[in-house]
Amino acid sequence: MNITGIMIYYYFVCQRRLWYFINQINMEQNSELVKIGKILDETTYTREKKQILIDNTINIDFIKNKAVLHEVKKTKAVEEAGIWQIKYYIYYLENKGVQDIKAKIDFPLLRETKEVILEDKDREILKNVIIHIEEIGKMDKPPEIIDSRICRKCSYFDMCYV
Known about the structure:
This protein is about 45% helix and about 15% strand. The chain has 6 helices and 5 strands, in the order H-H-H-E-E-E-H-E-E-H-H. The chain has helices spanning about 5-15, 15-20, 30-45, 80-95, 120-140, 155-160, and strands spanning about 50-55, 60-65, 70, 100-105, 110-115.
């Protein structure tokens, strides 16, 4: 299985959502929040070359100064998932031989930026996350509903609760 950055993100947000994504059940085309995210992407950091796709696996929002990866997020609601997503980008590039990578998460609506560092313990966690994502992909049915406050705004809400 080709583990993408969005899979890492979904793993930390909701493993049920990850299962739907892996199984190509896509509800995001109907989501107002996804549409807002696309508008945010189109209207911020307009001078940067954006959406840098590497190996059809990681899609970096933009790279600044040839060495700083940037991931743009609308809010901090699922900040941890965004942090792990960009840590995965660093991990992936390190495994391709790229060294000394720096990374930041940008929250343009909040006018905040957070530096992200990949540590040795993170590499071990990511190895296990990748294995678990592959296991989730092999499941016959989706994992249990997480019943979190973020569920109400999720594009898959109807799949889980209706």
